């Protein structure tokens, strides 16, 4: 057993966002390499018709956890699910559960976030900023806490030309934004959003930058580290290659291409497709958790985890590899033969959208109508 794996033995670990992609892979790695850890607390939103235990079994009932069940047969007993809602300022955690978290937690991995680019500012600030501040307040009351690991994004400061591993200030203080959103109505918020986010490309990256500022301002005497991954993709090696459970980022594009819905993509072909495997991110998270707890750095350290310039893969190269894979292992019942063309020209992109996407979908939907079936391809191609 490695030094890092041994460190997590006997620990009580709190993971936010444990039901998400990154959170699941983090849990799997912890249980597989440190089966003698004490407990993993996961915050779970109430879901109609399902008990907490059923939610736990639903998470474990995945191919991802097959090896874990061999190494740690009682894994379900080491997951302590707690009802919580990060959309509420106090997380709506019961008094008893809160007391247990405050008195027992040793390590916090804060993975929970909204990653939608088109989310509303109110919702994104609540999950990416206010919830982070609330969790830091909880952490400051945990006498046994050894490390707080905050997961941000490599694009939190993408409005800058050069990004160092430091926390950059935002034009408006996070507290002012949080306070303002409490009394502003949605119409006014929508109107001022472009002025607030300025040169950030979307609400997601802007609120993640605000979240980093909150970590810096509310850190108190906590041992904190920030990790900035780029685009998190499928597993590379652990527990096996190619596991993914969502259509975020490039995953949705790959599926749409494989099914034949997406053939023209507006992108710069030679631009870096900065996709990093999720198991690589998790390995860094565990290493940073160990280092932060054991070495107790005097300031908050920031870690980038990206492909960078060392081993870049551009979008054209990725497209070629994806298409080659579909030649060997095609999807069942595709709409048409997979193909993909990249263009950075807006006019060319609109032309190919009309010719390669909308026109074939409309024609096929007409055929479906004539044969008494429900049309559906126009909607799918527009979504792609």
What topology does this entry show?
Layout: H1 3-7, E1 12-16, H2 21-33, E2 39-44, H3 52-60, H4 66-71, E3 79-83, H5 95-104, E4 107-110, H6 121-139, E5 147-151, H7 174-181, H8 186-197, H9 203-217, E6 224-229, E7 231-233, H10 250-258, E8 264-266, E9 275-277, H11 278-295, E10 301-305, H12 315-328, E11 341-343, H13 346-370, H14 377-383
Parallel strand pairs: 1-2, 1-4, 2-3, 4-5, 5-6, 6-10, 7-9, 8-11
Helix pairs in contact: 2-11, 6-7, 6-9, 13-14
Q: What does the radius of gyration come to?
A: 22 Å
Q: How far apart are the first and last residues' alpha carbons, in Å?
A: 45 Å
Question: What is the succession of H and E elements?
Answer: HEHEHHEHEHEHHHEEHEEHEHEHH
Question: How would you sum up the global shape?
Answer: globular
Instruction: Flag low-confidence runs.
Output: none
Number of DSSP strand runs: 11
With helices defined by DSSP (H or I, 4 residues minimum), what is the helix count? 14
Q: Pairing-aware structural class of the strands and helices?
A: alpha/beta
For the biggest sheet, the summary is: 7 strands, parallel
| Binned strand content | 5-15%
Strand arrangement, major sheet: 3-2-1-4-5-6-10
Helix content: 40-55%
Average pLDDT over all residues: 90
What does this protein structure show overall?
The chain is α/β, with parallel strands linked by helices and 384 residues long. It has 14 helices and 11 strands. It has helices at 3-7, 21-33, 52-60, 66-71, 95-104, 121-139, 174-181, 186-197, 203-217, 250-258, 278-295, 315-328, 346-370, 377-383, and strands at residues 12-16, 39-44, 79-83, 107-110, 147-151, 224-229, 231-233, 264-266, 275-277, 301-305, 341-343. The chain is globular. The mean pLDDT is 90. Belongs to the fatty acyl-CoA reductase family. Keywords: Lipid biosynthesis, Lipid metabolism, Membrane, NADP, Oxidoreductase, Peroxisome, Transmembrane, Transmembrane helix. It is found in: Peroxisome membrane. This is Fatty acyl-CoA reductase.
